[in-house]
Design brief:
By secondary structure, this protein is mainly alpha-helical. Helices cover 70% and strands 2% of the residues. It is built from 16 helices and 2 strands. A two-stranded antiparallel ribbon has the order 1-2. The longest helix has 32 residues. The radius of gyration is 28 Å and the shape is globular. The two termini are 30 Å apart.
């Protein structure tokens, strides 16, 4: 088979085997690099203080020289060596850290004993994910609130389009001192920094999506006598949101980059704090384990966006309404709408209604499950195959 052949398509079995082979090749390259970058460290017993703990004075200099000499002799006479991985630990050491990260002992010198902080992977992952969701919400909210009017109005476009477009060139990491001054070092800093990091990329995209609305839909609406509000509601919003979900998927990696930076500023909780602490302690297997876990979360988040895209905008996948689509759409809109109201109320009033949000989300999930059950009945599957 030639290297470039547009007509050839792999079967599912071939894709699975090639995927497994690619993963195996990746592990082999990983192991090879780890061994290539490994070092042999002599096993010695040093009973003296390290030179860095000696104060620099006339007496200390002589003492430090004697210590260095004694340590050099001990290293030279060492008969036992152990392999260390200062840059890249092998896969076995990384994956073996997951059990202790998921269920760690709650005793540690770098966390207080009152339980206010934890090095458990799952609680910190949930905290970072919730921050990520909040940042996404505010970024999308303000992008639509600002981008659609600017994209629709020629006057606003002439006034602000260029200023908005150049926002993406801001070095966001250099703005962290300004965010610390404005929001402090607590939760508001992390969410606002992430939201702004997504906003500067998403806002110009929203404007571009408004301009890319297909002319045939606009002419049809004009022919049917649609008002300006009906045009925005029935044409512009579905068109922009249907394309924007793909742009949001692309920003998933950027969002995790910024949330890790924000959590590293105040290392009270979250995966960014864990990475910083483990890196300072020299626990590289734990650092790589947390990074792999972030990749897994990002992948699942991407698949969730794919699912939402297929269900909220079924016209992009199906040719007609299938049984169960309305229930799934109602359930997803209920969850998204309740979450939006909860975040807005919490931001402006400080009220906590997590229990109410949980109940509404459970009800929405029931509708989603019912719709999926109807959608994937044998008849529905046959119709999907025919499409």
């Amino acid at each position: 088979m030639p290297l470039i052949d547009a007509e050839y398509k792999y079967t599912k079995q071939q894709k699975l085997l090639l995927g497994l082979a690619g993963f195996g090749l990746f592990l082999l390259v990983w192991i090879g690099l780890a061994e290539l970058l490994s070092q042999q460290k002599p096993v010695v017993e040093i009973n003296t203080r390290p030179p860095s703990s000696i104060t620099v004075d006339s007496a200390g200099l002589a003492q430090r020289d004697s210590i260095i000499k004694a340590d050099s002799v001990a290293f030279a006479n060492a008969t036992e060596f152990q392999k260390i991985y200062p840059l890249l630990p092998p896969p076995g050491r990384v994956f073996s850290r997951f059990p202790s990260l998921i269920n760690p002992p709650e005793t540690g010198v770098w966390f207080p004993a009152d339980g206010s902080r934890t090095r458990a992977l799952i609680p910190n992952a949930l905290i970072s994910t919730w921050r990520n969701i909040q940042g996404y919400f505010w970024a999308v909210f303000f992008s639509l609130l600002i981008g659609i009017p600017v994209g629709l109005s020629p006057t606003l476009r002439a006034l602000f389009a260029r200023q908005i477009d150049v926002l993406r060139y801001l070095p966001l990491t250099a703005l962290t001192p300004l965010f610390i001054i404005a929001f402090g070092t607590e939760e508001a800093l992390k969410v606002s920094f992430l939201a702004f990091g997504i906003l500067v990329y998403l806002l110009p995209v929203v404007m571009q999506r408004v301009w890319e609305t297909e002319d045939v839909y606009l002419k049809t609406s004009f022919t049917l006598g649609a008002s300006d509000w009906q045009l925005v509601k029935s044409v512009y919003l579905p068109s922009v949101l249907g394309k924007l979900i793909d742009d949001i998927r692309v920003l998933t990696a950027i969002s995790w980059t910024y949330i890790i930076i924000a959590e590293s500023l105040n290392r009270d909780s979250g995966l960014g704090g864990l990475i910083y602490i483990f890196a300072r302690l020299g626990d590289l297997p734990a650092v790589y384990a947390v990074l792999i876990f972030i990749v897994i979360i990002g992948f699942l988040q991407d698949q969730l966006f794919v699912y939402i895209n297929r269900r909220l905008f079924p016209h992009k996948t199906f040719k007609r309404v299938k049984p169960g689509m309305n229930e799934v759409k109602l359930g997803l809109m209920t969850i998204l709408g309740a979450s939006m109201i909860y975040l807005i109320v919490q931001a402006f009033t400080g009220l906590e209604a997590g229990v109410v949000l949980g109940i509404i989300c459970v009800a929405g999930l029931v509708f989603v499950g019912l719709g999926e059950f109807k959608l994937w009945q044998p008849v529905a599957q046959k119709e999907v195959a025919n499409d």
